[in-house]
Design a protein that fits this description.
The chain is 34% helix and 20% strand. The chain is built from 10 helices and 13 strands.
């Protein structure tokens, strides 16, 4: 079954879309028409589970759904949508989405669907860490989030926004990792070759462990002479886009850096839904 179909962005984003050759997708008509079936299955569970995967040290928590609580006939059909997501590959692009949350697929139902996708993908891959639906760090003091790679064990990042400020603050920012190593770092002064190689190892080697903290420190820790300048250089090369409720993006976290420009009023725990997974192409490399 087809999960996504191409659509147009908001009018104010058409210029950016054309200049950067961006693609925008939304739910397919078939998927959207199944909302009544999704609601029926949601009514069978009191709430989405929140689980910990004790075998792993870092970022080992996820929203999830116990598939045994749902109708077998429904799961048989939904598994086709899960396989569609499993075979979806953003390649080296950022794929943008719109209208994933609306009146029929509301925020509560969307939360259930993302958790269901997480559970279905781990069943397909036979890997509990093959997909995570991870909550967001929130708080009134949270604002800017410098460009980074999450470096979860899964590599495909699918973010969909729910509760965002109505003003222009808090736009999403992006920078290709190739630009980090080929343009940004050469402008920072003398960064030791050993440090650059360590960064690349953390990003590109499949170590089956989360390497976010170490990479973030190598980029931004004040002990390094480039920590102050790196923001300035990155700002000149990144591009930003303000995403609204129901909009989002999918990218390969080992190809793109992503971040958040300053936002007003802190960060709500419901700011975005974040599904991270490995797809067919990644598992067969």
């Amino acid at each position: 079954m087809i999960l996504f179909q191409e659509t147009a962005p908001r009018p104010e984003l058409q210029k950016l879309t054309s200049s950067r050759n961006l693609v925008w997708l939304t739910w397919s008509d078939t998927f959207r028409k199944s909302h009544a079936d999704f609601d029926k299955q949601l009514s069978k569970i009191s709430e989405v589970d929140f689980i910990y995967l004790s075998k792993y040290k870092d970022y080992n928590y996820s929203f999830s759904v116990a598939l045994s609580k749902l109708d077998k006939s429904f799961l048989h059909d939904f598994r086709n949508y899960a396989y569609s997501l499993f075979h979806f590959d953003p390649e080296d692009r950022i794929v943008f989405f719109t209208n994933l949350i609306d009146r029929k697929i509301n925020a509560k139902l969307f939360h259930f669907l993302f958790a269901l996708f997480r559970s279905s993908l781990t069943e397909i891959t036979n890997d509990k860490m093959g997909a995570l639906y991870s909550p967001l760090t929130s708080g009134k003091q949270e604002s800017e989030f410098p460009l980074h790679c999450d470096l979860y064990i899964p590599k495909i990042l699918f973010n969909v926004y729910e509760h965002v400020p109505r003003d222009a603050s808090g736009s999403s920012a992006f920078l290709e990792l190739s630009e980090l190593f080929e343009v940004v770092i050469p402008k920072l002064g003398k960064v030791p070759a050993s440090t650059i190689q360590r960064m690349k190892k953390l990003i590109y080697d499949d170590t089956r462990q989360d390497n976010y903290d170490e990479l973030y420190a190598l980029l931004y820790d004040e002990q390094y002479h480039w920590s102050e300048k790196i923001h300035q250089v990155m700002d000149k090369h990144k591009f930003s886009i303000k995403l609204h409720k129901g909009e989002g993006y999918m990218l390969n976290d080992r190809i793109w850096m992503h971040g958040r420009n300053k936002t007003s009023g802190g960060i709500s725990s419901k700011r975005l839904h974040r599904l991270i997974f490995n797809n067919f192409q990644l598992l067969n490399k």
